Amino acid sequence: MARTLQLLLPGFQRFDCQSCTYCCRSPIVMITRAERDRILRAGWAERLPEERLFHRRRWLGHRPFMLAHRPDGACVFLGEDKLCRLHAETGLETKPLPCRLFPFVPVPACDGIRLDVRCDCPSAAANKGRSLSVHAQDIAHMLAEMHARPRLAPPAWRGVLGLSSREFAAVTEAFVRLLRRGSLDPRMRLRAGCLLIETLCEVRPSKVRGERFIELMAMLSEGAATQAAEPPAVAPLSRRSEKLFGQWLFLHAVTDDPRVMQAGRLARIGRSWRRYGQSRAFARGVGLVPEVSPGWPRVTFEQVKAVQPAPDEALEPICRFIHLKLDAHAFAGPAYYGYDVIAGLTALWLFPAVAGFFARLRTAEAGRDTVNADDVLQGVRTASATFGTSPDFARLSERMRVRALAEPGVPSAFLARFGA
Ligand code: SF4
Q1: pTM exceeding the 0.85 threshold for the entire prediction
Q2: Between the N and C ends of the chain, which has fewer C-beta atoms within 10 Å?
Q3: How far apart are CA 205 and CA 213, in angstroms?
Q4: Does ligand 1 have an atom closer than 6 angstroms to the CB of 83?
Q5: Is 23 in the pocket of ligand 1 (CB under 6 A)?
Q6: pLDDT tier at 47 (50, 70, 90 boundaries)?
Q7: Nearest-CA neighbor of 67 among 105, 101, 42, 96?
Q8: pLDDT digits (tens, 9 = 90+) for 263-296
Q9: pLDDT for 78-92, tens place per residue?
Q10: How far, in Å, is the centroid of ligand 1 from the Cα of 31?
Q11: Structural domain boundaries of the chain?
């Protein structure tokens, strides 16, 4: 008898589509050959004879089909009424699954299918709408269509050492406990996470397994919370760490523009050269912040560093983003480029500094001296657009980078410098 697939939703997240059309413009939508064929069978090549409907590019070792975009950036199927023409004119069955699912991302986990939510969607980032349980039935139908199956094993700890599902749950729980810690303000909770990662880098689970490992995680989480409540002693950052973080930051700033993806070889080579120069400028971290996309703020790194952090209550979207990724197991393993647990947790806990940098950019551009709640929200959206989706982070060099950034004192120092 077929087993019912368990769908695990983050109870703290809300969502309802606000029809802003962001998802019909910015993200690259990859579709299967079957989805492309369904669109063609519905007669779209004849309905839009002047338009290119799909293109193909190399992407993480595959050559998937992607929906084409018009020169104004909109998906070729977006109607003037801001609605999807596939859905409206030839039925939901011709609309590709990633479009129907957005902003939800199912993550196969050991205990069922967990649900991640993309926070580049403005509605998800702002936690607008109804509880996700309202959408559960629709999501379950889509999972059946995907033939989603749970995973057999959790991600490795470090390198190849495997954890049991209970041990992995103890790791995520140790961090979730810090995020929920009422006695700490949000900034202290984020710092506690950095401190816990720094401690975990020293743990050798091959020597401590099973119940002892689970107890150890609870104990270390408690220790990090106590340490975070004390006045922070921020270590000075080495030039090497600054350079590594600058390039990490840069990769979060560059989203793949669908129009460049479908442009000719020459345009793509030009983009690669521009990116190379911009990446070096981010690594230097002085002078004008390179303009990585049209409309990018024209401010200097010095102005960004001089901005004052936001009030505590404005940090909710950052804490919720981290909680979402922990809850969905979307920070390591196949859901995050195959990173091991330590590398994935480091990438996740660098997120507040990355989102904070983007928030500060907006603050500096507006000529204000303190980050506000809207800046934080926009910072989270910008940083989320690449988190777990940009193929750049799949490179071995990025795993090595994040490993180097997990050194004692480094994640918390970047949190102190750029945190929103
Ligand atoms: S980005 Fe989010 S709110 Fe906007 S149209 Fe897409 S799903 Fe709806």
Answers
A1: yes
A2: N
A3: 7
A4: no
A5: yes
A6: very high
A7: 96
A8: 677 777 887 888 899 999 999 999 999 999 888 9
A9: 999 999 999 999 999
A10: 18
A11: 7-146, 165-229, 239-418
